[in-house]
Amino acid sequence: MKTNVSALGLLSIIVIGLSLLSCHNDSENSNDFIIRVDSVKIPYVVSSATPFDIVFYGTIGFNSCYSFKTFNRAITDNDIKIEAWGTLDYIEGKCPEGLVSLNGQILTLTIPLPGTYRIVIKEPEDYTLVKQITVK
Predict the structure, then answer these.
(1) Structural domains of the chain, with CATH
(2) Most buried among 28, 56, 57, 65, using CB within 10 Å?
(3) CA distances for 136 relative to 56, 65, 115, 120, 131, angstroms
(4) For the whole model, what pTM was predicted?
């Protein structure tokens, strides 16, 4: 019985140690952030249940270690909230300087029901960029 408890304890320590090692993340070198969107191109009127594009412009970063990651979106009533996320994967000596931008990054949306909607784009420091569209 004592041997089983000791073996179980040793096995537990090994599993915990391996899981901690596998979770190693270079968090000081990789950071996600909300991109400051300078402007968007959105149609004023769209058809319900028909895809349309929102085109994003803005600066992501100032060297090649910055990049666009994803769009997060949430719909609450007639508000469509969007966040443009970027990431910085810093590698010392491997990040040549240069402007990295959204450069017309496209998010395609489909709104199923007619009505008036607000596109709310979340910006850093709790700012928002708001556009209104009509869905027919």
Answers:
(1) 26-135 (2.60.40)
(2) 56
(3) 23, 42, 7, 20, 17
(4) 0.74
